[in-house]
Amino acid sequence: MNTDIYPTLGAAIAIFITIVYQAYYMYTGGSLTGSPWGCLIAISMVVGEPILRTALAVTTAKSCDTNEIVLPLSFGWLSHAVTSLLPVLAGVRGLMPEPEIDCQIVNMKSGKSRKNKSWVLASMVRDLEKETDDSVGGLNISVYEAGKVNTRAVGDRCPYTLTNFTFWVQFVPITVVELFRISHPKYLFQDSALILLLVFFGMCLSILTTQLSAWRAEKFTARADGGDKNVYALTRGDGHRHVFIIRNCHGKALNLEDLAVAGTSNYDWFGTGGGYILIGTTLGWLAFTVVACHLTRGAALLFGVLALGSVSNIITAACPADFFRRVAQYMNTLPGAYKRNQLVIKSPCPIDLTFRESLSHGNVMEALKNLETRFPGYGEKLLKIFFPTQPSPEDELFWANAKAEINREHTRGAEETKDGNNQVHDEVVVEPEELEEAMGDAATPTSSSAFLVGEEQGSLQKVAEEDDNVAKKNQGEKERRVIEGEGTSPKSAYLKSRRRG
């Protein structure tokens, strides 16, 4: 469990005990009888949950400098708390909302595509589409380079400025009303203190929910690229004008295929402490709603505070990153905007993206051909998405030639790599000491020239031995003839006749 939330947790428990005690005391005394505004508060706590969930998805798991982002009091907190118990009891992840738009991700190396299920990537596509020029029909292909995960929300400090500003502004009407009632004792009643306690208690519950570690675990569960420099394409498919190619250029850049899966994998809620926090906040929001709907006086003020927070959440959830960028640029022009406090938007996305170039054409096929010419292999991977049927003969010839050229490049690259390895191997075999020894031996009789002389002498000796063998063989043949009487001399005939007799 995050130790930073311990003070908030202790404050929430103390305020909860105080609220229960005072509400019970006032209820038994007949002071809590309910009002129409109290009924509206009860209804508002169970409506608007999708807006609140999206606002939480935008602002959580991020930090702006040293300031934490928290959401103000608004409608829908009780409904969100009860819904959050489903993944807790099931032991899976499920805090994030469903993707806002349907899109798919394509691996530009393997050509494999899959449907995106990540809210982060869908939100990123939506924001990038808002910032891309739509004046050109056909297809617009934007190339980005991705770095590591951005540690800020939808911008640098604007969401912090909006949500936290609303968070603290909610104290203003409460404080003004309390000061007015203290200065005018005839307007002082017990409900005012209870309203102030309810506001403090609701803000503590909001802080506990936004600081859960499960938000980061669910939003950014993906392997790091690890230097593979993978390339991905994000698109909404055929019929849409935009394709965003993201090239990983950082070793800590995320594998976007892993991020797109966003599976309901197991999560140890109670081991991390998040399960206990969500169960406790659910009980807290239930008590908040029960007490608020029984308020006799001051319920309208509390309802106004909740409505103000809901307006802030709608802006946070609906407006794209470009809106916050324009707000930041305007705030930097105001008097007193010192350089150290300037609002700078580094990236519109949770992942740091750097724009490199754009390829656009009024004809989709021509845009893909331009992409293939600029980045060989990229256009061919997207061809099946935008042209699932058979292309025309001319286009088919172009893509066949492009594929053949890529194969030739791969073959040439493999041969160059092989030759380079062989060359490196040869260079490694000839050690510097061996090379020096060989150069020293060249000046001595035992060098390569001496080796040739020795080889020639061996050949001459072999020839001489063969001649001796032939001579011995002739001599033996001659003696055989003499013994057998094959000779023509009288002495030979005499010796032969005598041996027979």
Question: Quick summary of this structure?
Answer:
Helices cover 59% and strands 9% of the residues. By secondary structure, the chain is of the alpha+beta class. Residues 434-501 are annotated as: Disordered.
- H and E string: HHHEEHEEHEHHHHEEHHHHHEHHHHHH
Helix content: 55-70%
The tally of domains stands at 3
Q: What is the arithmetic mean of pLDDT? A: 75
**Count of discrete alpha- or pi-helical segments spanning 4 or more residues:** 20
Distance N terminus to C terminus? Answer: 128 Å
Major beta sheet summary: 6 strands, mixed
Instruction: Write down how many β-strands occur, each being a DSSP E stretch of 2 or more residues.
Output: 8
Q: What structural category do the secondary elements indicate?
A: alpha+beta
SS strand fraction: 5-15%
Instruction: Give the overall silhouette.
Output: elongated
Radius of gyration: 43 Å
State the strand order across the main sheet. 4-3-6-7-5-8
Which parts are unreliable, with pLDDT below 50 for 5 consecutive residues or more? 63-67, 151-158, 338-348, 424-457, 482-501
Transmembrane segments: 6-25, 37-57, 69-92, 193-215, 273-293, 300-318
Biased composition (Basic and acidic residues): 469-484
Keywords: Membrane, Transmembrane, Transmembrane helix
Region (Disordered): 434-501
